[in-house]
Amino acid sequence: MKIGLFFGSFNPVHIGHMAIANYMVEYTDMDRLWFVISPHNPFKERKTLLADHHRLELVERALGDDERFMASDIEFKMPTPSYTIDTLAWLGEKYPSNQFVIIMGSDGLPSFPKWKNAPEIQQNYRRYIYPRPGYPVDVLGQENLEVVDAPHIEISSSFIRKAIRNGKDVRHFLPPAAWKYLDEMNFYRK
């Protein structure tokens, strides 16, 4: 089975994430997609990051009963900061019959050479790249990379956090069940 790994903090998960995930499963050769919730991205600040279990709950609620998707807390059990290569190695050992591919936005390509063991990832794992505004994809010198013509989504988790902090109603930017949990818990308000 080919499984796409959609890594992210999902702080919070939003309709843009859901649209990309849906597009990837329906318009590529992957069978399933796992949302891999990262406890801490080494390239991002931690100050606005919700607790791991809250972000996992938001993703699980967003996914509901859609069997194409799964929320994964695999990186919660690994040393932090989490590194993609370590997660891939662990998943390969645990699920040797599955083929894993990485899903990433084009905004992640400039920092990719700084990833731990980037050449090993590039050589051994296919990367499906979706477009992000302002980040054109240069495929020159890139191995195992496929640009997926997914819709351009200009929504971000940081936009949602800031809007909530400023008292804006952004309920339609999140899947309803995720919004309900976020609102009940008063996340990002101050």
Essential attributes:
190 residues, alpha/beta, Rossmann fold, six-stranded parallel beta sheet, 6 helices, 6 strands, 32% helix, globular
Structure description:
With 190 residues, this protein is α/β, with parallel strands linked by helices. It has a single domain (2-154), classed as HUPs (Rossmann fold, 3-Layer(aba) Sandwich). Helix content is 32%, strand content 16%. The protein contains six helices and six strands. The chain has helices at residues 15-27, 52-63, 84-94, 118-124, 157-165, 176-184; strands at 2-8, 32-37, 69-72, 99-105, 127-130, 145-147. It has a six-stranded parallel β-sheet with strand order 3-2-1-4-5-6, sandwiched between helices. Strand 4 (99-105), helix 4 and strand 5 (127-130) form a beta-alpha-beta unit. Helix 2 runs antiparallel to helix 6. The protein is globular and about 45 Å long. The mean pLDDT is 93.
The proportion of strand residues reads: 15-25%
Tell me which CATH architecture applies here: 3-Layer(aba) Sandwich
Ranges with pLDDT <50 over ≥5 residues? none
Q: How are helices and strands ordered from N to C?
A: EHEHEHEHEEHH
Form type = globular
Give the structural class: alpha/beta
Q: How many beta-strand elements? A: 6
> What kind of oligomer do you see?
single chain
Most strands sheet? 6 strands, parallel
> In the CATH hierarchy, what is the superfamily?
HUPs
What value does the Rg take, in angstroms?
16 Å
- Determine the CATH topology: Rossmann fold
Query: How many independent structural domains?
Result: 1
Question: Any idea of the CATH class?
Answer: Alpha Beta
Number of helices: 6
